[in-house]
Amino acid sequence: MPRPRLLAPSRILRSTPRQIGGGRSREALVRRARESIEKGSKSFAMASRLFDRHTREKAWLLYAWCRRCDDIADGQDHGGELKLDEADAKDRIEAIRVLTRRALDGQPTAELAFDALGQVAMEAGLTQDMTDDVIEGFALDAAGWRPRSELDMMRYCYHVAGAVGVMMAQVMGVPADDQDTLDRACDLGLAFQLNNIARDVWEDDAAGRCYLPMEWLVEADIPPGQHMKPQYRGKLVELVARMVGMAEQHEAAARLGAARLGFRQRWAILSAANIYGAIGREVRARGAAAWDHRVHISKTAKLRHVARAFREALRKPPEPEQMPRWTRGEILVAVRMAGPVAPIPMTPLPDDF
């Protein structure tokens, strides 16, 4: 019987060649990434301008990927109104995973933000474990997950911001084996996200989400899903003040790590810390009126925070009064325990004879 003919001769079949950045020029990736950060986050855009050019461009490339993943997961365009569709939520997360892995493998993705990730990953030594940790935060949201305990909340904060802080530290040149500085970078991300949760309690509730630990709500005698009701506003203010206090501890710890960076990097990081810290402190200061209007920091106030960061970058940071309760190591244990069981290695046993 004659052998069936292949659709194409095997000698002309070729695997797709590796093309870092999806075959796009670095200049084009940087230009579009800059447009993304200027549209999506004026605070980060302002702070990033303080970096040296090469660090600034890598930060933009990383931001573009984070922003695009967030938009795909939530059906948004650079933030704005959530357009959640639970029917295809898992498909959207799987698409993020596939495109991310292709980018890290040096394959074109037809998505500029993912091609940008491939470029910055090659330049800064970012790994799939790092991106998987970030994507898991989007997967938790897609599954309608809510934190039961304080540790659960911190695990979520790690996925969506602490892990990004670690990646950002490597973008700035922190060695992968400098674990203490990476811990401090994680602290900054955790501080950012805790402040974000405090600010966005009303918006999250409107979207059917809640990132306040259930145990906190039980302790405050607030029924599940009722924390935005007027009769519980006083207790909610206390819980959010507790959260902002945690953010301040992580922020103070992060300043220790910032002191090990070059001056321009230190200035940029302290500027971002000041701006995001101001958000949480403003939420706390407004008390029961914190969610009547969304807290934002004016451009003039941001410039003041940048100027203050310049002075802070010139001197040694003060020692924190108290280090944060949750460390990166403890959170990572919870992250790995919550993840899938690692496959059993199938390597043969050594021959004793």
Report on the structure:
- Keywords: Transferase.
- It is an enzyme of class 2 (transferase).
- The chain is an all-alpha fold.
- Helix content is 62%, strand content 0%.
- α4 runs antiparallel to α6 (128-142) and α8 runs parallel beside α12.
- The termini are far apart.
Sequence-ordered SSE layout with sheet pairings:
Elements: H1 26-40, H2 42-48, H3 53-74, H4 89-104, H5 112-124, H6 128-142, H7 150-171, H8 179-199, H9 201-206, H10 214-219, H11 233-258, H12 263-286, H13 299-313, H14 328-338
Helix pairs in contact: 1-2, 1-3, 1-5, 2-12, 3-4, 3-5, 3-6, 3-7, 4-5, 4-6, 6-7, 7-8, 7-14, 8-11, 8-12, 11-12, 12-13
Largest sheet: none
The string of secondary-structure elements, in order, is HHHHHHHHHHHHHH
- What is the assembly state of the chains in this entry? single chain
Helical fraction equals: 55-70%
Number of domains: 2
Cα end-to-end separation: 49 Å
Number of helices: 14
Radius of gyration: 22 Å
Overall pLDDT: 90
Number of separate strands: 0
Strand content: under 5%
Uncertain runs with pLDDT below 50, 5 residues or more? none
CATH homology superfamily of the largest domain:
Farnesyl Diphosphate Synthase
* Level-2 CATH architecture of the largest domain: Orthogonal Bundle
Overall, the morphology is globular
CATH class of the largest domain: Mainly Alpha
Question: Keywords, please?
Answer:
single chain, 353 residues, Farnesyl Diphosphate Synthase, 2 domains, 14 helices
